[in-house]
Write a structure and sequence with these properties.
This is 2-phosphoglycolate phosphatase. The chain contains ten helices and 16 strands. Helix 9 links the parallel strand 14 and strand 15. The protein binds 4-phospho-D-erythronate and magnesium ion. Magnesium ion (MG) binds next to loops.
């Protein structure tokens, strides 16, 4: 049973228990470019209390560096080395875990976040924001030349997804021997500033259906994301809390990593998902309405 937080004492006890605070972003800190009320103040309180903050997002549309730009623009203090996105985790996975040979490349369905992180990791790629792929023209195999050096397809949130991109990815995954099917994450929906939109999982779904094959997913809840963080940051899982808005990514990710978990109700999860007959079997340690609630902690 999750503990519902409501009083200053509840929030104070959380600050006493945890040294490292891992924050999901979409639905926890912001919706699109609209900050959630109280988020900035609470992050300031935590920094003043000497807590280590990490930002762990499945949103692959931006690289760590361009996320730093978003944090700056929104007036939220953050360093690049505190930011871990699924585009970064995917690029590290391809270069350091999969060890894609240098003469091979990745076909990308995705945005600049994935491209910038692959470039940073020295991984060659095609597709992505290439204007030749961002077309609504019908795709024809007659005019298509298969690139035999594509050793992996990586699919993430892509607001310009189209039939050409899906068709090219399908060719590589069915005709290049050993071509790996990777996705940055599988979130079904994306909590934008004005409501829910299809998420990265909905972008790769047509390929899963056509291929009758599941991809390797690198973002939350996969351990690859935590491995990526632990390769850079030392923290004690027992004194670390993961704060998220989605049960099957953020909370599962925390639980799989032996972290404590705090669910906030400002994003994807609804009350009916955690109470009543259809409640999820994924149960966070703590629940509160919004990260802004932590402003109730006793002043220093
Ligand atoms: O569709 C997506 O990629 C996700 O909904 C979204 O980007 C999740 O981001 P997070 O909540 O992990 O910050
Ligand atoms: Mg979220």
């Amino acid at each position: 049973m999750a503990a519902r937080l409501s009083s200053p004492e509840h929030y104070d006890s959380l600050l006493d228990k945890f040294d490292t605070w891992m924050f999901d972003c979409d639905g926890v800190l912001w919706h699109g470019d609209r900050l959630i009320d109280g988020a900035v103040e609470v992050l300031d309180i935590l920094r003043k209390r000497g807590k280590r903050l990490l930002f762990v997002t499945n949103n692959a549309s931006k690289s760590r560096k361009s996320y730093k730009g978003k944090f700056d623009q929104l007036g939220v203090e953050a360093r690049v080395d505190e930011i871990y996105g699924s585009a970064y985790a995917a690029a590290v996975y391809i270069s350091s875990v999969m060890k894609l040979p240098k003469d091979k490349k990745v076909y990308v369905i995705g945005m600049t976040g994935i491209e910038e992180e692959l470039r940073e990791e020295g991984v060659s790629f095609i597709g992505g924001t290439d204007p030749a792929d961002c077309t609504l023209e019908p795709f024809s195999l007659t005019n298509f030349t298969l690139d035999p050096d594509v050793g992996a397809v990586l699919c993430g949130l892509d607001v310009h997804v189209n039939y050409t991109k899906l068709s090219k990815a399908f060719q590589y995954l069915t005709r290049n021997p050993g071509c790996q099917f990777l996705v940055t994450n599988e979130d079904s929906t994306y909590p934008s500033a004005d409501g829910l939109l299809p998420g990265a999982g909905a972008i790769s779904a047509p390929l899963r259906f056509a291929l009758e094959k599941d991809p390797i997913s690198i973002g939350k809840p996969a351990k690859t994301m935590l491995d990526c963080i632990q390769a850079k940051v030392h923290f004690d899982p027992k004194r670390t809390i993961m704060i998220g808005d989605r049960l099957n990514t953020d909370i599962l990710f925390g639980q799989a990593g032996g972290l404590s978990t705090l669910l906030v109700m400002t994003g994807i999860t609804l009350e009916k998902d955690i109470t009543g007959p259809n409640a999820s079997t994924i149960v966070p340690d703590y629940v509160t309405g919004s990260i802004g609630d932590l402003r109730a902690v006793k002043a220093l």
